Amino acid sequence: MVNSDGNLVFLSTDAFVARDSGYAPTGGVARDPEVWAILDGILILLSKGYKRVTIMTNNLEVAQTLSDIDMEDLGITVLRRTLRTLHSEGEWRIKHIRRNHNLVADRLAKLSLSWKSSLQVMDKAPKDILDLLKVDKTNGCFM
């Protein structure tokens, strides 16, 4: 159960809350939005045929919770659904990364405030993101 080309795919999540409006584009920040962002990412990747993925989050609590294979009786529905999906299909690894090493996800979360749609799926990175991808790679995010 790997991608057709055998490559490992990385899913990075992050978010922030706009202080003036209270709007929180997902990608993360609080526990539930972070998990929703991960679940959305997993479902998008599965729909595109990717089943070998490293999920990177700067939320340590979420990384620990999703890595705990003994967590069965979770009170939060989105956590249960995410864990069930992780355990049922593909090869998923959870990796905690420091917030300052999650530059691409952070930038995309902030950019999402200007998007007309609440969900953007990009097959190619925007030009301003390519340099951040190099920095994230240098910081060890893609190991």
What would you report as the Rg, rounded to the nearest angstrom? 15 Å
- Name of the CATH first level: Alpha Beta
First-last Cα distance: 20 Å
Low-confidence segments, given as residue ranges, are 26-31
Write the CATH fold name.
Answer: Nucleotidyltransferase, domain 5
Q: Largest sheet, order of strands side by side? A: 1-2-3
The fraction of residues assigned to DSSP E strands is 5-15%
Order of helices and strands: EHEHHEHH
- In the CATH hierarchy, what is the architecture at level 2? 2-Layer Sandwich
Based on Cα principal axes, name the global outline: globular
- Summarize the main sheet: 3 strands, parallel
How many β-strand runs?
3
Helix content: 40-55%
Mean pLDDT across all amino acids: 75
Number of helices: 5
How many structurally independent domains? 1
The computed structural class is alpha/beta
Q: How would you briefly describe this protein structure?
A:
This protein has 143 residues and is of the alpha/beta class. The protein has helices at residues 31-47, 60-67, 77-88, 103-111, 127-138, and strands at 9-13, 52-57, 91-96.
Can you characterise this structure?
- The protein is α/β, with parallel strands linked by helices and 143 residues long.
- It has one domain: Nucleotidyltransferase, domain 5.
- The protein is 41% helix and 12% strand.
- It has five helices and three strands.
- A three-stranded parallel beta sheet has the order 1-2-3.
- Helix 4 runs antiparallel to helix 5.
- It starts with 8 loop residues before the first strand and ends in a 5-residue tail after the last helix.
